[in-house]
Amino acid sequence: MSTVRVLVGTRKGAFVLTSDGKRERWDVCGPHFGGWEIYHLKGSPADPQRLYASQSTGWFGQLIQRSNDGGKTWEPVGNKFAYDGVPGTHQWYDGTPHPWEFKRVWHLEPSPTDPDTVYAGVEDAAIFRTTDAGETWQEFPGLRGHGSGPHWQPGGGGMCLHTIILDPADPQRVYIAISAAGAFRSDDAGRTWQPINRGLYSKSIPNPTAEVGHCVHHVAMHPARPHVLFMQKHWDVMRSDDAGDSWQKISGDLPVDFGFPIDVHAHEPDTIYVVPIKSDSEHYPPEGKLRVYRSRTGGNEWEALTQGLPQSNCYVNVLRDAMAVDSLDTCGVYFGTTGGQVYASPDAGDHWAPIVRDLPAVLSVEVQTLP
Amino acid sequence: MIRVVLPAHLRNLARAEGEVQLDVAGEVTQRAVLDALEARYPVLRGTIRDHDTLKRRPFVRFFACEEDLSHEPPDAPLPAAIASGAEPFLIIGAIAGGI
Lengths: 371, 99
What we know:
The complex is a heterodimer.
Chain A: E1 3-10, E2 13-20, E3 27-32, E4 37-43, E5 51-57, E6 61-67, E7 75-77, E8 89-91, E9 97-99, E10 104-110, E11 118-123, E12 126-130, E13 138-139, H1 141-144, E14 160-166, E15 174-179, E16 182-186, E17 194-195, E18 216-221, E19 229-233, E20 237-240, E21 248-249, E22 258-264, E23 272-277, E24 292-295, E25 303-305, E26 323-325, E27 333-336, E28 342-345, E29 353-356, E30 362-370
Antiparallel strand pairs in A: 1-2, 1-30, 2-3, 4-5, 5-6, 6-7, 8-9, 10-11, 11-12, 12-13, 14-15, 15-16, 16-17, 18-19, 19-20, 20-21, 22-23, 23-24, 24-25, 26-27, 27-28, 28-29
Chain B: E1 2-5, H1 8-14, E2 20-22, H2 30-40, E3 60-64, E4 67-68, H3 80-83, E5 89-93
Parallel strand pairs in B: 1-5
Antiparallel strand pairs in B: 1-2, 3-4, 3-5
């Protein structure tokens, strides 16, 4: 029977949750790297036993850990993320120029074909890659060097590159997203980049339709349909059917369209999930009810999924990288909260149950479906 | 023999138990001690001071002989009691910034 492995990054360590394909009984292993912030950990599609983790603290900076046995043991690898050339400046919160400074790795995206190749999205926003299993990291300077770089501003969580999507059909194509610059695409394997924000409308910035400056919270893609992208923006849920060249709003009948994560069903490319949050000044669910919303129509028409989720006095948040799906026949959906709960649904969102309730605040959730 | 006390997180990272003892050639300075420490435990590179500038990370402090030496120049000689091994060189995670 298949095994599901859920990789959870938290404010105080990493946890590995495993179950068989029924997804009813779970083994909880951790904390790994106790006391450290684990912004993200993810397994290699090419070798599921190979995992990478981003480990950091404000005191001692950034480390990258690598596991060759599915997270049982780990070894630290290279932690030097040096910007290519003179870093230059971006805009600070007050609009003044501020030097580009490396702070942490937000997201690790292993190559679909090579376990030694991993992309890293970092704060201050840049994309790096290793081709030697994490020993050394090199920046793709064409992104930060895009002409708009000096105008990028940090979002509330810092100027982070938090989303990396590798097109499974075209190795030359990479999508990334930055808070609060927006989404970008490379069609030449990361050498050059173009902003893909046409159609986004952000009323809180001086030019609501600017080429850059949008606070994109997360982007998701179904691997069978790589030209279709779904985006949870600061406000607004958006969809692109042309690889990001243009975007349409699909918030539809959502009770509120602010939120952080967005993900796509493993087998139904038009089934998508979001977690509405009351507002950008109140990072908790509306009415104290934790509800995942599912659209089976690629957006606009949404249904609340509540079975097994707290429907009163719930004031947690779900962060942008804290939702994932498995690829079993009945797609499992998972998300973690800032209150330390990790919820699983073995039936595409119809019913939910907590795997664990009292972890540190969850920063990220990834899922591996193992044979 | 120079004695170095690491904070718990870095001791775990280096897989070191208790105090670290280092041989430091030449004058005993902050830089010489940290160079020797990072040579023994390469995993500590970047965790105490910046990879390139070698500046102390903001929330790391250096104490010795009941003094805060964090702001001393990295090439200034450390107290004789450190050089002789009578007192340890303490690397501290500052009591700040936690959540």
